[in-house]
Design a protein that fits this description.
By secondary structure, the chain is an alpha/beta fold. It has helices at about 5-15, 20-25, 30-45, 60-85, 100-115, 130-140, 175-180, 200-210, 230-235, 255, 285-295; strands spanning about 50, 55, 90-95, 120-125, 145-150, 155-170, 195, 225, 240-245, 260, 270-275. It folds into 3 domains: about 5-80, Winged helix-like DNA-binding domain superfamily/Winged helix DNA-binding domain (Arc Repressor Mutant, subunit A, Orthogonal Bundle), CATH 1.10.10; about 90-160 and about 270-310, 3-Layer(aba) Sandwich (D-Maltodextrin-Binding Protein, domain 2), CATH 3.40.190.10; about 165-260, 3-Layer(aba) Sandwich (D-Maltodextrin-Binding Protein, domain 2).
Length: about 325
């Protein structure tokens, strides 16, 4: 078994076609096929089911390919680790961000990263929490920005900021809209607009309201949206209430800000962290990315005392 064979099986998995994988790997198809065949013979298993079109990995092949991705990602870190030891910080950092964070953090982070003029190239994708964890496990991304704590012993979490949950209330909800601030129990009797089930933000809101998704049945629960901006537009043009993260405030018009209500006493918050696999070795580059995130977020959101009001995922 060698690195080249691992690269070839990953390429075939990416393209699900031997010719396209060979072209992407800058080798002939017979060479690629022969190398993969040798690996299969050495392992005594079939990695790919060649009877399928497009080609599919076998069950054991999928596990081998996932491990190959992890191994290749770790191998690629070796030269970068050596360069970091020499004081040279450069390379690609593949970062994923959850959809309820990216519209508010990403534009500022991109500006900060550009102003730092470093030799680190950020490759950024938007993914759900489950997708981030899956891709981190496979080694196809280097880090993720998402809500924590995850209680996942495979990952290392670096909290970077805490933001409050805010209520966004339609003026048609006259009683709630007339209140200067809300209690968490006010959400329980309202027409509550939520994100769909792939978002951990939804789970936090259900926990905030003491409503479990497994037994939450209400006639007021009429629609699940894919983005916070959609929820805001629904409330603007209909009635009801939704919950938004504090960073969304800067994206509201002056008129929309009149619909925002803080929660009474200590406002509930969510923790946003930069996470990597525990075996991620490029410590200096992750320190730089963490620093840039902090520079992109108001200092008021970086007070660790806010952690005591954390809403679990």
């Amino acid at each position: 078994m060698n690195i080249q064979q691992l690269e070839y099986i990953v390429a075939v998995d990416n393209y699900r076609h031997f010719s396209k994988a060979a072209e992407a790997s800058f080798v002939t198809q017979p060479t690629l096929s022969m190398m993969i065949q040798k690996l299969e013979d050495e392992l005594g298993v079939r990695i790919f089911d060649r009877s399928q079109s497009p080609i599919e990995p076998t069950d054991v092949g999928r596990k081998i390919i996932d491990q190959a991705r992890v191994s290749l990602a770790q191998i690629s870190q070796i030269q970068e680790i050596v360069e970091e030891e020499k004081g040279v910080i450069k390379g690609v950092f593949r970062l994923a961000i959850i959809p309820t964070v990216s519209p508010y953090l990403l534009p500022k982070l991109m500006q900060t990263h550009r102003e730092q003029n470093s030799d680190i190239r950020l490759v950024i994708n938007e993914m759900t929490t489950n997708q981030i964890l899956s891709n981190l496990a496979k080694g196809t991304i280097d880090g993720g920005i998402l809500a924590t704590p995850l209680h996942d012993n495979r990952m290392k979490e670096r909290p970077v900021y805490y933001e409050k949950f805010l209520a966004y209330v339609s003026p048609n909800e006259r009683f709630l809209h007339s209140k200067p601030s809300l209690q968490e129990m006010d959400l329980r009797g309202a027409k509550l607009w939520l994100l769909d089930e792939v978002h951990c933000f939804r789970t936090q809101i259900l926990n905030l309201c003491s409503l479990k998704s497994t037994n939450f049945v209400s006639s007021a629960f009429t629609y699940e949206a894919g983005s916070i901006e959609t929820l805001i537009n629904i409330v603007d043009n209909n009635d009801g209430i939704t919950v938004i993260p504090e960073m969304a405030l800067d994206h509201l018009t002056d008129k929309q800000k009149l619909n925002v209500r803080f929660f009474e006493k200590a406002s509930p918050v969510r923790e946003i962290s930069l996470i990597t696999r525990k075996d991620f070795l490029r410590e200096r580059i992750i320190e730089i990315i963490e620093s840039e995130i902090r520079m992109s977020v108001p200092a008021s959101l970086q007070d660790e005392k806010l952690q005591k009001e954390l809403v679990e995922i």
